[in-house]
Amino acid sequence: MSELRVRVPATSANLGPGFDSFGVALPLLAEFEVKSARAWAVDVDGGGDGIPAGEDNLFVVAARAAARSVGATLPAQHVTQRSTIPLSRGLGSSAAAIVGGAVAANAILGGQLDRRTLLRVASEVEGHSDNVAAALYGAFTVALQTPDGPVATRLAFPAGWRVCLFVPGEPLPTERSRAVLSKEVSRADAVFNLSHAAALIAAILRADGALLSVAMNDRLHQPARAKLVPGLEEIVGAARAAGAFGAALSGAGPSVIAVAPARLAARVVSAMEDAAVAMGLRGRGRSLRVRAAGATVQRA
Ligand code: HSE
Question: How far is Cα 249 from Cα 255, in angstroms, rounded to an integer?
Fold first, then answer.
Protein backbone atom coordinates (compact mmCIF):
# COMPACT_ATOMS: atom_id res chain seq x y z
CA MET A 1 0.00 0.00 0.00
CA SER A 2 1.57 3.32 -1.04
CA GLU A 3 1.87 5.94 1.64
CA LEU A 4 3.02 9.52 1.21
CA ARG A 5 3.78 12.41 3.50
CA VAL A 6 3.35 15.80 1.80
CA ARG A 7 4.38 19.09 3.39
CA VAL A 8 3.32 22.45 1.98
CA PRO A 9 4.24 25.90 3.32
CA ALA A 10 1.94 28.77 4.20
CA THR A 11 2.28 31.73 1.85
CA SER A 12 1.73 35.45 1.87
CA ALA A 13 0.69 36.96 -1.45
CA ASN A 14 0.86 40.44 -2.99
CA LEU A 15 3.41 42.02 -0.57
CA GLY A 16 1.83 45.36 -1.43
CA PRO A 17 2.14 46.09 -5.16
CA GLY A 18 2.31 42.52 -6.53
CA PHE A 19 -1.43 41.82 -6.58
CA ASP A 20 -2.09 38.25 -7.80
CA SER A 21 1.61 38.04 -8.77
CA PHE A 22 4.01 38.00 -5.79
CA GLY A 23 4.16 35.34 -3.10
CA VAL A 24 6.48 34.31 -0.33
CA ALA A 25 6.69 30.92 1.41
CA LEU A 26 6.58 30.79 5.21
CA PRO A 27 7.58 28.04 7.64
CA LEU A 28 4.05 27.31 8.88
CA LEU A 29 3.25 23.95 7.34
CA ALA A 30 0.27 21.93 6.24
CA GLU A 31 1.13 18.24 6.39
CA PHE A 32 -0.84 15.50 4.62
CA GLU A 33 -0.51 11.75 5.12
CA VAL A 34 -1.89 10.01 2.07
CA LYS A 35 -2.74 6.29 1.88
CA SER A 36 -4.67 4.35 -0.73
CA ALA A 37 -8.22 3.59 0.40
CA ARG A 38 -11.60 2.35 -0.85
CA ALA A 39 -13.10 5.87 -0.99
CA TRP A 40 -11.80 9.40 -0.78
CA ALA A 41 -11.82 10.84 2.75
CA VAL A 42 -10.00 13.70 4.45
CA ASP A 43 -9.58 13.69 8.23
CA VAL A 44 -8.51 17.00 9.64
CA ASP A 45 -6.63 16.73 12.93
CA GLY A 46 -8.17 19.08 15.43
CA GLY A 47 -11.65 19.12 13.89
CA GLY A 48 -11.30 20.91 10.58
CA ASP A 49 -13.48 23.94 11.26
CA GLY A 50 -15.90 23.30 8.38
CA ILE A 51 -13.29 21.90 5.95
CA PRO A 52 -15.07 19.39 3.63
CA ALA A 53 -14.15 15.78 4.39
CA GLY A 54 -15.01 14.25 1.00
CA GLU A 55 -14.59 14.79 -2.71
CA ASP A 56 -15.23 18.53 -2.46
CA ASN A 57 -12.16 18.97 -0.24
CA LEU A 58 -9.64 21.18 -2.10
CA PHE A 59 -6.86 18.60 -1.68
CA VAL A 60 -9.04 16.00 -3.41
CA VAL A 61 -10.28 18.42 -6.10
CA ALA A 62 -6.69 19.37 -6.97
CA ALA A 63 -5.41 15.78 -6.83
CA ARG A 64 -8.07 14.64 -9.27
CA ALA A 65 -7.53 17.66 -11.54
CA ALA A 66 -3.80 16.88 -11.65
CA ALA A 67 -4.55 13.28 -12.67
CA ARG A 68 -7.04 14.43 -15.32
CA SER A 69 -4.42 16.77 -16.80
CA VAL A 70 -2.42 13.69 -17.87
CA GLY A 71 -5.48 11.62 -18.77
CA ALA A 72 -5.17 9.45 -15.67
CA THR A 73 -7.68 8.47 -12.99
CA LEU A 74 -6.40 8.56 -9.46
CA PRO A 75 -7.24 5.69 -7.12
CA ALA A 76 -9.10 6.85 -3.98
CA GLN A 77 -6.96 7.95 -1.04
CA HIS A 78 -7.37 8.54 2.66
CA VAL A 79 -5.81 11.84 3.68
CA THR A 80 -4.95 12.92 7.21
CA GLN A 81 -4.31 16.65 7.40
CA ARG A 82 -2.41 18.48 10.15
CA SER A 83 -1.88 22.17 9.64
CA THR A 84 -0.41 25.09 11.49
CA ILE A 85 -1.66 27.52 8.83
CA PRO A 86 -4.51 29.64 10.20
CA LEU A 87 -7.63 29.46 8.00
CA SER A 88 -9.08 32.47 6.17
CA ARG A 89 -6.33 34.78 7.43
CA GLY A 90 -4.56 35.59 4.14
CA LEU A 91 -1.84 32.98 4.70
CA GLY A 92 -2.55 30.56 1.87
CA SER A 93 -4.34 27.72 3.69
CA SER A 94 -6.41 26.87 0.58
CA ALA A 95 -3.34 27.10 -1.68
CA ALA A 96 -1.53 24.66 0.64
CA ALA A 97 -4.36 22.12 0.35
CA ILE A 98 -4.49 22.55 -3.44
CA VAL A 99 -0.73 22.25 -3.93
CA GLY A 100 -0.69 19.30 -1.52
CA GLY A 101 -3.29 17.47 -3.58
CA ALA A 102 -1.57 18.21 -6.89
CA VAL A 103 1.90 17.09 -5.75
CA ALA A 104 0.51 14.01 -4.00
CA ALA A 105 -1.31 12.97 -7.19
CA ASN A 106 1.86 13.51 -9.17
CA ALA A 107 3.85 11.28 -6.80
CA ILE A 108 1.18 8.56 -6.99
CA LEU A 109 1.23 8.79 -10.80
CA GLY A 110 5.01 8.40 -10.93
CA GLY A 111 5.96 12.04 -11.52
CA GLN A 112 4.31 12.53 -14.91
CA LEU A 113 3.54 16.23 -14.32
CA ASP A 114 6.29 18.82 -14.52
CA ARG A 115 6.31 21.80 -12.18
CA ARG A 116 4.72 24.12 -14.70
CA THR A 117 1.81 21.73 -15.20
CA LEU A 118 1.41 21.48 -11.42
CA LEU A 119 1.35 25.28 -11.30
CA ARG A 120 -1.32 25.42 -13.99
CA VAL A 121 -3.53 22.82 -12.35
CA ALA A 122 -3.17 24.43 -8.91
CA SER A 123 -3.82 27.93 -10.32
CA GLU A 124 -6.99 26.75 -12.05
CA VAL A 125 -8.36 25.28 -8.82
CA GLU A 126 -7.32 28.33 -6.73
CA GLY A 127 -8.36 30.96 -9.30
CA HIS A 128 -5.05 32.86 -9.19
CA SER A 129 -1.39 31.85 -9.15
CA ASP A 130 0.44 33.87 -6.49
CA ASN A 131 -0.05 31.70 -3.38
CA VAL A 132 0.17 28.38 -5.22
CA ALA A 133 3.42 29.44 -6.96
CA ALA A 134 5.13 30.24 -3.64
CA ALA A 135 3.72 27.07 -2.05
CA LEU A 136 5.12 24.97 -4.91
CA TYR A 137 8.48 26.69 -5.47
CA GLY A 138 9.33 28.17 -2.05
CA ALA A 139 11.15 31.46 -1.29
CA PHE A 140 9.82 34.54 -3.15
CA THR A 141 7.95 33.97 -6.39
CA VAL A 142 6.62 36.06 -9.23
CA ALA A 143 3.78 34.41 -11.13
CA LEU A 144 2.52 35.68 -14.47
CA GLN A 145 -0.16 34.59 -16.88
CA THR A 146 0.86 33.70 -20.43
CA PRO A 147 -1.16 32.37 -23.39
CA ASP A 148 0.36 28.97 -22.51
CA GLY A 149 -0.70 29.11 -18.87
CA PRO A 150 0.94 30.52 -15.77
CA VAL A 151 4.71 30.75 -15.39
CA ALA A 152 6.49 31.38 -12.10
CA THR A 153 10.01 32.37 -11.25
CA ARG A 154 11.64 32.04 -7.84
CA LEU A 155 14.04 34.43 -6.11
CA ALA A 156 15.97 33.85 -2.89
CA PHE A 157 14.80 36.14 -0.10
CA PRO A 158 17.50 38.22 1.66
CA ALA A 159 18.90 36.10 4.53
CA GLY A 160 19.07 39.05 6.92
CA TRP A 161 15.37 39.93 6.52
CA ARG A 162 12.47 38.56 8.51
CA VAL A 163 8.75 38.46 7.89
CA CYS A 164 6.72 39.84 10.80
CA LEU A 165 3.06 38.91 10.86
CA PHE A 166 0.05 40.09 12.75
CA VAL A 167 -2.69 37.46 12.49
CA PRO A 168 -6.09 38.78 13.65
CA GLY A 169 -8.46 36.62 15.66
CA GLU A 170 -11.27 37.16 13.15
CA PRO A 171 -11.20 35.50 9.69
CA LEU A 172 -11.90 37.26 6.38
CA PRO A 173 -13.03 35.01 3.50
CA THR A 174 -11.05 35.67 0.32
CA GLU A 175 -14.24 35.91 -1.81
CA ARG A 176 -15.46 38.76 0.38
CA SER A 177 -12.13 40.54 0.15
CA ARG A 178 -12.03 40.15 -3.65
CA ALA A 179 -15.64 41.27 -4.04
CA VAL A 180 -14.78 44.85 -2.93
CA LEU A 181 -12.18 45.33 -5.69
CA SER A 182 -13.10 47.45 -8.66
CA LYS A 183 -12.84 45.85 -12.10
CA GLU A 184 -11.26 48.92 -13.69
CA VAL A 185 -8.14 50.78 -12.59
CA SER A 186 -6.88 54.18 -13.69
CA ARG A 187 -3.73 54.48 -15.75
CA ALA A 188 -2.11 56.43 -12.90
CA ASP A 189 -2.76 53.58 -10.47
CA ALA A 190 -1.56 50.98 -12.98
CA VAL A 191 1.68 52.92 -13.46
CA PHE A 192 2.04 53.34 -9.68
CA ASN A 193 1.82 49.57 -9.13
CA LEU A 194 3.95 48.68 -12.13
CA SER A 195 6.82 50.86 -10.93
CA HIS A 196 6.49 49.82 -7.28
CA ALA A 197 6.33 46.11 -8.14
CA ALA A 198 9.44 46.40 -10.32
CA ALA A 199 11.25 48.29 -7.55
CA LEU A 200 10.23 45.66 -5.00
CA ILE A 201 11.90 42.96 -7.10
CA ALA A 202 15.05 45.08 -7.36
CA ALA A 203 14.98 45.59 -3.57
CA ILE A 204 14.83 41.82 -2.99
CA LEU A 205 17.59 41.07 -5.51
CA ARG A 206 19.88 43.65 -3.91
CA ALA A 207 18.70 43.18 -0.30
CA ASP A 208 18.05 46.92 -0.39
CA GLY A 209 15.82 47.77 2.58
CA ALA A 210 15.69 51.49 1.75
CA LEU A 211 14.30 50.69 -1.69
CA LEU A 212 11.83 48.18 -0.21
CA SER A 213 10.51 50.87 2.11
CA VAL A 214 9.37 52.99 -0.83
CA ALA A 215 8.39 50.03 -3.04
CA MET A 216 6.06 48.18 -0.64
CA ASN A 217 2.98 50.25 -1.44
CA ASP A 218 -0.12 49.53 -3.46
CA ARG A 219 -3.07 51.21 -5.13
CA LEU A 220 -4.79 48.24 -6.78
CA HIS A 221 -6.32 46.35 -3.86
CA GLN A 222 -5.28 47.51 -0.42
CA PRO A 223 -7.14 50.85 -0.31
CA ALA A 224 -10.45 49.12 -1.17
CA ARG A 225 -9.84 46.37 1.36
CA ALA A 226 -8.92 48.68 4.23
CA LYS A 227 -12.58 49.03 5.21
CA LEU A 228 -12.78 45.25 5.76
CA VAL A 229 -9.66 45.12 7.93
CA PRO A 230 -9.98 47.19 11.09
CA GLY A 231 -6.63 48.54 12.26
CA LEU A 232 -4.82 47.87 8.96
CA GLU A 233 -3.44 51.38 8.61
CA GLU A 234 -2.46 51.59 12.29
CA ILE A 235 -0.69 48.18 12.30
CA VAL A 236 1.18 49.00 9.08
CA GLY A 237 2.18 52.39 10.53
CA ALA A 238 3.32 50.83 13.82
CA ALA A 239 5.45 48.24 11.99
CA ARG A 240 7.16 50.91 9.94
CA ALA A 241 7.69 53.17 12.95
CA ALA A 242 9.33 50.24 14.80
CA GLY A 243 11.85 49.74 11.99
CA ALA A 244 10.18 47.54 9.37
CA PHE A 245 11.20 48.39 5.82
CA GLY A 246 7.58 48.05 4.78
CA ALA A 247 4.26 46.44 5.64
CA ALA A 248 1.12 45.47 3.76
CA LEU A 249 -2.00 43.38 3.85
CA SER A 250 -1.07 39.68 3.60
CA GLY A 251 -2.87 38.32 0.54
CA ALA A 252 -6.56 39.09 0.76
CA GLY A 253 -6.13 39.75 4.51
CA PRO A 254 -6.86 40.15 7.30
CA SER A 255 -3.26 39.34 8.41
CA VAL A 256 -0.66 42.07 8.05
CA ILE A 257 2.86 41.28 6.82
CA ALA A 258 5.88 43.45 7.55
CA VAL A 259 9.44 42.91 6.34
CA ALA A 260 12.15 43.93 8.78
CA PRO A 261 15.86 43.48 9.40
CA ALA A 262 16.35 40.42 11.67
CA ARG A 263 17.65 42.49 14.58
CA LEU A 264 14.42 44.56 14.70
CA ALA A 265 11.93 41.76 14.06
CA ALA A 266 10.91 41.22 17.71
CA ARG A 267 10.38 44.96 18.16
CA VAL A 268 8.30 45.17 15.00
CA VAL A 269 6.08 42.26 16.09
CA SER A 270 5.50 43.88 19.51
CA ALA A 271 4.65 47.19 17.89
CA MET A 272 2.13 45.50 15.57
CA GLU A 273 0.54 43.71 18.55
CA ASP A 274 0.43 46.91 20.60
CA ALA A 275 -1.24 48.80 17.75
CA ALA A 276 -3.85 46.04 17.46
CA VAL A 277 -4.53 46.06 21.21
CA ALA A 278 -4.90 49.86 21.09
CA MET A 279 -7.58 49.35 18.40
CA GLY A 280 -9.35 46.75 20.57
CA LEU A 281 -8.40 43.89 18.20
CA ARG A 282 -7.58 40.31 19.13
CA GLY A 283 -4.76 38.52 17.39
CA ARG A 284 -1.19 37.38 17.56
CA GLY A 285 2.11 38.50 16.09
CA ARG A 286 5.08 36.38 15.11
CA SER A 287 8.34 36.70 13.25
CA LEU A 288 9.43 34.11 10.70
CA ARG A 289 12.21 33.42 8.24
CA VAL A 290 11.09 32.95 4.66
CA ARG A 291 11.08 29.22 3.82
CA ALA A 292 13.40 28.42 0.91
CA ALA A 293 11.70 25.12 0.06
CA GLY A 294 8.29 24.70 -1.50
CA ALA A 295 6.11 21.60 -1.23
CA THR A 296 7.91 18.33 -0.47
CA VAL A 297 6.81 14.71 -0.84
CA GLN A 298 8.27 11.79 1.09
CA ARG A 299 7.39 8.13 0.70
CA ALA A 300 6.63 6.72 4.13
N1 HSE B 1 -3.80 37.74 -4.63
C2 HSE B 1 -4.92 37.22 -3.91
C3 HSE B 1 -5.78 38.38 -3.43
C4 HSE B 1 -4.43 36.44 -2.74
O5 HSE B 1 -5.22 39.39 -3.03
O6 HSE B 1 -7.01 38.27 -3.48
C7 HSE B 1 -5.55 35.85 -1.94
O8 HSE B 1 -5.50 34.48 -1.95
Answer: 6
- CATH architecture for residues 161-288: 2-Layer Sandwich (3.30)
4-155+291-299: CATH number: 3.30.230.10
Q: Where are the domains of the chain?
A: 4-155+291-299, 161-288
User: Whole-model pTM above 0.90?
Assistant: yes
Question: pLDDT (tens digit, 9 = 90+) per residue, 79-101?
Answer: 999 999 999 999 999 999 999 99
Q: How far is the CA of 1 from the centre of ligand 1 (A)?
A: 38
The residues with which 29 forms a beta bridge, in sequence order, are 9
Closest residue to atom 3 of ligand 1, CA basis: 252
Q: Give the model's pLDDT for residue 46.
A: 74
Residue 183 CB partners (closer than 8 Å, separation 6+): none
CB 283 within 8 A of CB 167: yes
Residue 55's pLDDT band, with cuts at 50, 70 and 90, is: confident
The rounded distance, in Å, linking the Cα atoms of 102 and 121 is 7
Q: Which residue has the higher pLDDT, 1 or 172?
A: 172
- Ligand 1 is surrounded, with C-beta below 6 A, by 13-14, 19-20, 128, 130-131, 174, 178, 221, 251-252
- The alpha carbons of the chain give a radius of gyration, in whole angstroms, of 19
